[in-house]
Amino acid sequence: MSSPRNLSYCQAINEAFHQTMEADPSVFLIGQGVKSPWYVGSTTRGLIERFGQERVIDSPISENGITGAAVGAAIAGMRPVVVHPRMDFMLYAMDPIINEAANWFYMSGGRSNAPVVFWGIINRRGEQAAQHSQAMHAVFAHVPGLKVVMPATAYDAKGLMVAAIQDPNPVVFVDERLLYGHAGPVPEEIYQVEIGKGCIRREGCDVTIVAVSLMVHEALLAAYQLAENDIEAEVIDLRTVKPLDQELIVSSVKKTGRLVIADAGWQSFGISAEIAALVSEQAFDDLKEPIMRVALPDCPAPASMALEEDYYSSAVDIVEAARKITRERKNIWRAR
Amino acid sequence: MNKGGKMTHDQERLQYLYRMMLRIRCFEEGLVDPILNREIRTPCHLCSGQEAVAVGLCAALSKDDYIFGSHRSHGHFLAKGGSLNALAAEIYCKEKGCSRGRGGSMHLVDPDVGMLGSAPIVSGTISLAVGAALAASLRKDGRVAVSFFGDGATGEGVLYESLNFAALKKLPIIFVCENNLYATHMPIRECRVDIPIHRIAEPFGIENHMVDGNDVLAVYDAGLKAVEVCRNGEGPVFLECMTYRFRGHVGPDDNVQGLHTDIRPKTELASWLNKDPIQRLERYLIEHIGIGVMDVQKIKDTVAQEVREAKTFAENSPRPRGKELNEYVFA
User: Fold this and answer.
1) How much is the ipTM here?
2) 20 to 30 A Cα–Cα from B225, which one of A200, A242, B113, B255?
3) CA distance B163 to B201
4) Is residue A193 included in any domain, yes or no?
């Protein structure tokens, strides 16, 4: 690989589009706001100029119909990416996503497949309230037939978008507008990040923190603070929500005996519950302490900034959760 | 190539239309007993009485063109060229079915003949057909897509989203509404205002026509014209085909007066039985084309034999094995 340059998260997605569209004429983008920086930042910069309006289709506000058209085009041999600049609007498209695309390969006995990417952007914070801030990844991960990826870094944003576009079946690509300015090393050439594989962002032996998307950065901040108190946290970045990298999570918990799960979505019935169940099934005897969850409370997103501070979790909450399961038994937590 | 609009058709074409409608009828009526005795359990929405729409329209398409169907798509599948054996085996939920026993009656697919799929979520495949037309348009490959749906689909919002987008992009798609006057148990006059369905296409600037859906030649001619419009880049086209199902919404049940599913007046059913599309074409063949009664009988015998063989094929096909439950699961 060439030496990577630093690119922002949204530039990395943009490069994924440029390279996949160049390599494969069946790739196209469609969705409301796809040519507007107001909606999609700079993720689509230069695409219309290079590939034309035929392959970068800014659509009417018809999420159900347009998402269905993307699914149908995929069934007919294309590789569309359909964007939902606010994930909340994807709910209009649940029928083509779940009833049709997710089930398509199975219910045709493998005779037909739908290689479509459903790209949903989470827009948390900014006093945007309940219908402009929702993180719906667990809803999609619940459904057989949908892969769900959530990159935390610029490198993964490009590699997972490429992998999602090249996958033979539907992939839900969920990103965070708050990460769009985050920069990191990104190789120039086209590459995939394997769907279904997480990675260890920081090694540690005292507690495992499993995090996803934005929460990976909070987990790394938390790990830094914990280390100041001699607690070494291992931080796992899921990268893919489904299929879950079970082996990576279980082997880390077997090493540390403690687990904090930091999700970007709601707590109840979400991925933190799924991971907790997985660990109690596969590593119960290795657990030294109860599993802790850091997730959004079961409450709609508020508008007021004052309420947002209580609503969104951060590194502080992860540190607090890790403290609860490390300080007494290990007796290593020093009062600050 | 037929230019469309011609009201004369060659004998071979006429016999094809007759044989295909008869194949669908004969096959579906052969499902009645196995459904009643529970040999067949997958919900079967029979299209007896509506065969002319599927057959007339698909006869106007080429093999490469695309169609999407609905919950009532045995006819669409066969008319587009799907295998009778594979359809029978699918309805018996067997491994040799077109969807390998994973789909059943409501999920029929044969990509090799352009039958891209069918699904029972009402209106669910309309946008998919728009997408197939979009794919054809992007590739400039000259294909046309057809979306078959019922009058009940006019209650779903996605139909209007699809009409708008297809019109906006001038997509090569034919929207075919099979108006059989009932949305499951609901008479159409209880579902929508009394304005002909094809007129919903007007505000989108889409060419639209009402067609006698029990006249296979009328459907065929309308189909040829619509295909030509679409191939010329002047799509979409909306066709409302007036028809009637002889059987109930699902299964053999007639949904007629006096039964526990009392819905349709007996006189109404009787009047439509008089307009049976297969008998109409049969009379036309004998009285106007000069095909002999013996030739017609020969076609009937051949079709009956095919259907018997398909049933035997289905019965003898293995079921998917239990351990193969996860065969087509990837996430």
Assistant:
1) 0.95
2) B113
3) 7
4) no
Contact yes or no for A73 and B164 at CB 8 A: no
| Half-sphere CA count of A274, side-chain side, radius 13 A | 20
Core vs surface per residue B277-303: b (16+ CB within 10 A) or e: bbebbbebbeeeeebeeeebeebeeeb
Tokens representing B71 are 């919950």
Residue with tokens 């269905």: A68
pTM (whole model) above 0.90: yes
Tell me, what's the pLDDT at B2?
Answer: 36
- For chain A, strand residue ranges (E) read 5-8, 27-31, 56-58, 79-84, 117-122, 147-149, 171-176, 183-186, 199-202, 207-211, 233-237, 240-242, 259-266, 292-296
Going by C-beta distance under 8 Å and a sequence separation of 6 or more, which residues neighbour residue A296? A135, A263, A264, A265, A266, A267, A311, A312, A313
Q: How far is CA B255 from the centre of its chain?
A: 20
Q: Are residues A257 and A211 in the same domain?
A: yes
CB contact under 8 A, A60 and B164: yes
For A329, counting Cβ atoms within 10 Å of its Cβ (0-12 exposed, 13-18 middle, 19+ buried), the class is exposed
Closest chain A residue to the Cα of B139, Cα to Cα: A26
C-alpha A111/C-alpha A133 separation (Å) is: 38
Measured in angstroms, the CA of A173 and the nearest CA of chain B are apart by 14
Q: How far is CA B328 from CA A163, A169, A253, B90, B182, in A?
A: 20, 11, 31, 16, 36
Q: Does A95 touch chain B (CB under 8 A)?
A: yes
A240 and A125 in one domain? no
Task: Tell if the CB–CB gap between B131 and A75 is shorter than 8 Å.
Answer: yes
Do A135 and A14 have their domain in common? yes
Beta-bridged to residue A149, according to DSSP, are: A173, A240
Same domain, A61 and A156: yes
Q: What CATH number should be reported for the domain holding residue A297?
A: 3.40.50.920
- Nearest CA-CA partner of B233 in B143, B164, B172, B175: B172
Helices (H), ranges, A9-145: 9-23, 37-40, 47-51, 63-75, 94, 103-107, 137-141
Q: Which residues pair with A84 in a beta bridge?
A: A120
B14: three-class secondary structure by DSSP: helix
In a domain, A41, yes or no: yes
Please give the residue range of the domain that contains residue A71: 5-186
> How far, in Å, CA of B46 to CA of B75, rounded?
9
In contact, B165 and A69? CB cutoff 8 Å: yes
Contact B285, B14 (CB under 8 A): yes
CATH of B11-312, one of 3.30.1490.20, 3.40.50.2300, 1.10.10.10, 3.40.50.970: 3.40.50.970
Task: Evaluate whether residue A326 is within a structural domain.
Answer: yes
Q: What is the pLDDT of residues A199-241, one digit of tens each?
A: 999 999 999 999 999 999 999 999 999 999 999 999 999 999 9
Asked if residue A191 belongs to a domain, the reply is: no
User: From the list A55, A62, A111, which residue is nearest B165 (CB)?
Assistant: A62
Q: What is the pLDDT of residues B241-250, one digit of tens each?
A: 999 999 989 9
CA B140 to chain centroid, in Å, comes to: 26
